[in-house]
Amino acid sequence: MNAAQEGDESDNTSITYQAYRPWSAEAFRGSINVICNSRKETIKNFKLLWRYVEVENKKIDINEFPILEFDESRVAIIEATNFINPKEEFEYCVITFFRDVIEKMKTEGKLKEVASLHCETVDLPIYETYYQGKKVHITLGYLGAAGSAGFLEELIAYGFQKFIVCGGAGVLQKDIAVGHVIVPVSAVRDEGVSYHYIKPSREVECNLEVLKFIEDDFNIHNIRYIKAKTWTTDSFYRETKEKVELRKAEGCITVEMEAAAFMAVSQFRNVKLGVILYGGDDLSGVEWDSRSWNSRSEIRENLVQISMRICSSL
Question: Does 52 score more than 50 pLDDT?
Fold first, then answer.
């Protein structure tokens, strides 16, 4: 059945699809409801949706797709704990993607390097700092899901148990202003690494305890925020118009490259982690609009301070 042929294409049509992932194992089977008060020009976007989901219980051998071969084994051949020893007082860690804020804090003498995360291409220092007299650590995030997952594993091996991640994200709704705070409740898993940590599913949810803690803090301090779903992708050069419309239809308001990985690894390792984003570049229109999102230094500094406050209280 062609999705574009379902129902009336008039401007006021309300279209509902009950769609099932075409996986053979019951554990891999899920469903999504896509409800769209559709106009004619948006109907065609569901052709793309129909390539990914089907209404019929068509069985597909999961071995056709390596990404679906989830292994529930808790022990891997290589573990970060094989070469990293835990350190005392490594408990609270902020992971930020704002290099400019880290550099400014270093210049101001607020950071002390106490360890480092290493890979073949980059070393990322772990810094010690204080928030209102309480010791907190901070490090720069690694771009992309795979690198973020690996470095999170190593941070956990050092002994960190409580994390707040803060960074920017592209917005899929034009009315979200640059700098507006977004708290992801879940992430669409359009990346690869999360499938090695938790069973295949369309989304991964944020830790509910941490989510509530973030919301309570924002409400106490009168910080306006949006709580919604995010889209984690591996390729920002393949964010096509059709894919954007698909993600918007299932409720995503932001797009980034790490949230699903952070959520999946933290679930697997049973540590507390939350993500705080701010509205950056705009992908909602026909053309990309950078909106000078990475030059908003005051917003970025404030978000790091907020993340330190929340993390130190988890």
Answer: no
